[in-house]
Amino acid sequence: MKPQETYQHRIETVLDAILPNAETSTQKLHEAMRYSVLGGGKRVRPLLVYAAGEALGIDADFLDKPAAAIELIHAYSLIHDDLPCMDDDDLRRGKPTSHIAFDEATAVLAGDALQTLAFEILSQPLHGISAKNQLKILHTLTTASGASGMVKGQMIDLGAIGQALTESQLETMHNHKTGALIKASVLMATYCNNTDDDVLLSQRENLAEYADAIGLAFQVRDDILDIQSDTETLGKQQGADSAADKPTYPSILGMDSAKEKLYQLHQKALNSLESFGKEADLLREIAGFIVKRIA
Amino acid sequence: MKPQETYQHRIETVLDAILPNAETSTQKLHEAMRYSVLGGGKRVRPLLVYAAGEALGIDADFLDKPAAAIELIHAYSLIHDDLPCMDDDDLRRGKPTSHIAFDEATAVLAGDALQTLAFEILSQPLHGISAKNQLKILHTLTTASGASGMVKGQMIDLGAIGQALTESQLETMHNHKTGALIKASVLMATYCNNTDDDVLLSQRENLAEYADAIGLAFQVRDDILDIQSDTETLGKQQGADSAADKPTYPSILGMDSAKEKLYQLHQKALNSLESFGKEADLLREIAGFIVKRIA
After folding, report:
1. Nearest CA among B120, B71, B125 for reference residue A147
2. In this predicted model, which residue has the larger pLDDT, A217 or A293?
3. CB contact (8 A) between residue A26 and residue B152
4. To the nearest whole angstrom, how far is the Cα of A186 from the nearest Cα of chain B?
5. What is the ipTM metric for this complex?
6. Under a CB-based contact definition with an 8 Å cutoff, are residues B41 and B80 in contact?
7. How many contacts, defined by CB atoms under 8 Å, are there between A and B?
8. Following DSSP, what letter does each residue of A90-104 receive, concatenated?
9. pLDDT tens digit string along A151-172?
């Protein structure tokens, strides 16, 4: 099994154990929470936590909770993003979205509860991580998720429909909407230990640069796929962004320049890992996957 | 100024400083966050944090962030609770609800961001509180808010419309929907220090009993007010719960028994504070306020 797959299997087990079991009084809530988290998704963010941990020689046991927490945040954001009052999407990862499979009220609450659960599992005592570092992990994830991170990006996104954005405005939106969580995945891993922070300072900077590059690359590739792929491969509606009149990299730069930008971001990501040896190979592999993925 | 009012003024200032300023790109999001948090509400949960802190001799400076965090969680839950797909309420605290004053998408995102902000401010270094205790504060608030706390209560509530609940089922619902946060307010205060936990163990138990009693009393009084008050005094639609065919204490027990239950809960709250002297007077006052309030 390839390292990526090993960690993808690992995070499935971790998430399954963390999510609440079905229980009569709130069975539907728990089902909705499990439905949107389990059995789907590329697990890019957890993979990044594990891969950054590998690059720093951190045991995977110390990385499970942060890896799970960031996937819970991602899952909650997708549920709310798909709501009729937001993007109004019926299909996600090839399955009906939460408000279609359940109902809108359950989807809102399942999203709310998944966000809480992310912070709940990070506030329990974590094996191998000092309390101070645990607070840094929490702070990294909260700032990346909230009104100055992901939610800000979603808000800009909602306001951008039908607007002519410049490349720099588009980049600001994506840096918040998807980039913030991708960067947080990598940064959280740097706190998954008992050691003093300063030891890792230069490594943390390199990893942050890597994360910035692949975060943006992820979105450029997404925009290209929205135009060039098909609904079945994507597991969501092909052309949804163009149809919704959302600005994309190909629409602003043209397809050729968007592909050139993607190539340059890939190089930048690889360059930022120069000081690492083969322990960062999984990070390199993920950068390649993000740039070349077909769904 | 009465102690209650002092703390009510204090929490306004704290919340104002914590909430994001208006900013061009996401001005609407920040406005919506501020709109639902500031300038309204009885601040019962922050008051309980400060009052429990007083009972334990803890400086109010150490209590500001936990007091603000629990109010942010409360505010987020009200925004989402009022959404068309949930209770579909147009009026809250005498003002249009968030999705009426802004729009549904903004209301969903403002609620999401307020939840995140609550955990963000608790994950920053907190003056006078050890990192271990800070994690306990976070864990207390997350477990009280999520799928085994407040959100569970909201889910039971949604499923209870038109159902004939027993008194014990109604109590389970309220213990989660409102009781969990009220208990968390008091418990969080017990961790706002650098001392060893065990010092406070018996005091924490007494305060937890107090919180359980007033949490339930709060809801019994709410149900009575829903029938006996008027819309202007309440600041929300009078009779909304009865009209929505939601089970209430007066509808299950009859009005006289509901009032008797309220009296007994008040006594229970006061009894649980017996081991405290006048330093717990504010807690006693709040119990009286909850039982006698008219809005």
Report:
1. B120
2. A217
3. yes
4. 18
5. 0.91
6. no
7. 151
8. SEETTEE-HHHHS-H
9. 999 998 888 877 778 888 888 9
Q: How many other C-beta atoms can be found within 10 angstroms of the C-beta atom of residue B40? A: 14
Distance from CA of A68 to the nearest CA of B (A): 16
CB < 8 Å from B in window 80-139 of A: 80, 83, 85-86, 103-106, 108-109, 111-113, 115-117, 119-120, 123-125, 130-132, 134-135, 138-139
Nearest CA among B88, B98, B223, B86 for reference residue B155: B86
Q: b/e string for B140-151 if b means 16 or more Cβ within 10 A? A: bbbbbbbbbbbb
- For B107, nearest residue in chain A (alpha carbons): A85
- Residue to substitute from B78, B137, B142, B175, interface A, most A β-carbons within 10 A: B142
Mean pLDDT to the nearest integer, B99-104: 96
pTM of the model: 0.92
Inter-CA distances, A171 with A73, A179, A218, Å? 22, 9, 12
Residue A196, phi-psi category: left (phi > 0), alpha (psi -120 to 50), beta (remainder): beta
What's the DSSP call for residue A166? -
Terminal-to-terminal C-alpha distance of chain B:
21
Q: Which residue of B has its CA nearest to A86?
A: B105
d(CA B49, CA B23): 31
What are the pLDDT digits (tens) for B236-265?
A: 666 666 666 778 899 889 999 999 999 999
The two tokens of residue B293 are: 């309030």
* Count of CA atoms in the C-beta half-sphere (13 A) of A173: 21
Chain B residues 19-58 within an 8 A CB cutoff of chain A: 20, 25-26, 28-30, 33
Q: Which of A112, A116, A147 sits opposite B113 (nearest CB)?
A: A147
Cα of B284 to nearest chain A Cα, Å: 31
Picking from A25, A102, A140 by the largest number of B CB atoms within 10 A of its own CB, the best residue to mutate is A25
The domain made up of B3-292 is a member of CATH 2.40.50.140: no
Q: What is the mean pLDDT of residues A249-254?
A: 89
* Residues linked to residue A96 through DSSP beta bridges, in sequence order: A91
A199 has pLDDT over 70: no
Nearest to B37 by CA among B120, B93, B106: B93
Centre a 10 Å sphere on the Cβ of residue B131 and count the other Cβ atoms it contains: 17
Q: Count of CB atoms within 10 A of residue A60's CB?
A: 16
Q: Which residue, among B135, B227, B231, B240, has the nearest Cα to B188 in the 3D structure? A: B135
Identify the band that residue B48 occupies on the pLDDT scale cut at 50, 70 and 90: very high
Ranges of each domain in chain B: 3-292
- Look at A147 and B116 and tell me if their CB atoms are within 8 Å: yes
